Amino acid sequence: MAENSSSFLDRSHTVAGPGYNRWLVPPAALAIHLAIGQAYAFSVFKKPMGALISGNVDKPDALDWTPGQLAVVFSIAIVLLGLSAAVFGKWLERVGPRKAMLASALCFGGGFLIASLGVHLHSIWLVYFGYGFVGGIGLGIGYISPVSTLIKWFPDRPGVATGMAIMGFGGGAMIGSPLAVALMAHFKTSAPMGVAPTFITMGLIYLVFMMFGVFTIRVPADGWKPAGYVPNAQHSTLITTSNVDADNAIKTPQFWMLWVVLLCNVTAGIGVLETASPLIQETFSDASMGAGRGVTAAAAAGFVGLLSLFNLLGRFFWSSASDKLGRKPTYMIYFGLGILLYALAPTLMAKGSLTLFVVVACVILTMYGGGFATIPAYLRDLFGTMQVGAIHGRLLTAWSTAGILGPLLVNYLHDQQKAKGLTGAAAYQTVFYTMAGLLVVGFIANLLVTAVNERYAFKGTVTTASAGH
Amino acid sequence: MNPQPNSSANTPAADTGSGGSPVLAWLFVGLPLAWGVSQTFIKALALFK
């Protein structure tokens, strides 16, 4: 496209002018991540959507959607997140963050609108297509859209920058869940369970909210550096001064080691998240703790909320800490400390140490969130900034895999123990020990990460134009 | 921290505005996040009752 006919959305129109403050970029990124993070609150719709015909969540009609059918919606969205991040990563680097953010906003907001039609017509396939497929594409493009830009604006503290944005994905569920509950209560009299109008309202709210990011985001000009910033060449051999493009990055063992690292970290975290509510109620029940001292359903919901908070805090804390500690040592902590804590949890459960168990679970969740938030900076260290967004997109297929593998593994292990007649804490022991084993695999994979061979380095001059070549 | 002037080839098409106030931008995203965190915190208190 000729320069003079380029649009507001093009990368060339998003290059920051002299008066631009780089601290505007994290809020622009947060506007996207806080919106798409709603996906983790999809479970709030499960019961109402499973009672659209009967109108009673406790007595679903035979024609109502089953929990299994509704679980597929989230699974599709997570799979599409990884696939679209992988497929559209290079396109994002070429067109720039503004066009990608707009595409994400249209897909994510539009996904809600299509799904609302699906709910209105009671067509589960339309819900799968809307929220799962179209919305999932919005998730993937949105997730990676600000990452590369943030890293380029904050070469002096990439962990802090990406931690702020990816913290938003954790926070999105905290906004999306109470918002959905309030809207469904408001619309309950005008539509079955209030779900369809809630989807329309949320789709429009998120579309507008994400547009703030679209209008605010800017990329730095070629060669821009923060005033006074001098790259520390002696910091670590793992921090490259070269750039590797996305196609070459996936040919390196380092990329696949990090893929395994992310897969293990996410699968283990899902092991706790997936079982949190039933686990704490079954393990610390009245039968084991004494009459009236067991964990109630409301307290279990509070436990899940607490885990979400620590997941969010961990994203910022650990990612920021990795700027000082180094990426590889930070993952050593995630896996090393994680192995100890996962192995300790069954003992605490068996002894009925509720407070200590809650503390352990919260620390585990900080490292689960930290694993997500630190990975973009790790990629930047190994592969340079040129196509870090596209490389990150391809790595996120590990998240999709974990999103399917994690719940399957956890539910299989738990069901197997219950079939043996084990109850309470004993029924969850194998889950925790298996997750600890997965972290051992992650620890080894991280240990094997070395500097990328120079033969993979991009040989041309790195400019914004080469970002999407 | 503001960007340094540059001689990029992209400059002719570059945005010339300041992009707005960082404080307002942080409020725009910070307020919903603070609301969400407070709601979650209130829910979490049930665990300690």
From TrEMBL, chain A:
Subcellular location: Membrane
Keywords of the record: Membrane, Transmembrane, Transmembrane helix, Transport
Annotated InterPro entries: MFS, MFS_dom, MFS_Riboflavin_Transporter, MFS_trans_sf
Native source species: Hymenobacter frigidus
Gene3D superfamilies: MFS general substrate transporter like domains
Keyword presence, Plastid: no
Transmembrane regions listed in the UniProt entry: 70-88, 100-119, 125-144, 165-187, 199-217, 256-277, 297-318, 330-350, 356-379, 391-410, 430-449
Pfam family, one: MFS_1
Protein name (Swiss-Prot/TrEMBL): MFS transporter
Top-rank lineage group of the source organism: Bacteria
Ranges where the Major facilitator superfamily (MFS) profile domain occurs: 1-454
Topology in membrane: Multi-pass membrane protein
UniProtKB/TrEMBL annotation, chain B:
Membrane-spanning segments: 23-48
Origin superkingdom: Bacteria
Sorted UniProt keywords: Membrane, Transmembrane, Transmembrane helix
Protein name: Oxalate:formate antiporter
Organism: Hymenobacter frigidus
